[in-house]
Amino acid sequence: MTILVLAFCFTSALAQAPIFSRRPVLDQAPAWPENYQLILSVFDKDKLLHEISVLVASLEFRADSFDPTLTFQGTLVPAENGSFVLRYAVTAEIAVPTEPGTVPIGAPPVPAGRNVPVQFKTQTAQSTVRVRPGQPIEILKTGDRIYRIFLTRHAAPADGAR
Question: Which of 12 and 138 is assigned the larger pLDDT?
């Protein structure tokens, strides 16, 4: 009987426990009077591999893509002289060949009938930089892969505009 009462109390407590969502909490700060587009471009030498863009009008931002897997998140804070302080984190899944002498995905074709085994490795970078609208900044270089950020200013729509 005691076990039954304890089990009932335990399940009642679990039913009342809050369930937390995995969704990110949105920034509650007031919006800025202007929008800014923040673009992260990934290059292999001079060839654009991927680009992810987010339009922001407040401190926090986050953008995720799935092909390739790339997350770009952080805070953007207005600073003096029209510049911004950008605190960012970038996480990407990179295809890496598992055989010596093979080429990763996106490289020249492999001879017909031959599969190239790859593993996906996580590459991360986080830091704080100053950015100015209209001036690209290289935030990471690893091998031939280059990550660049570009910030542009966009006028906010007029009140009542859609």
Answer: 138
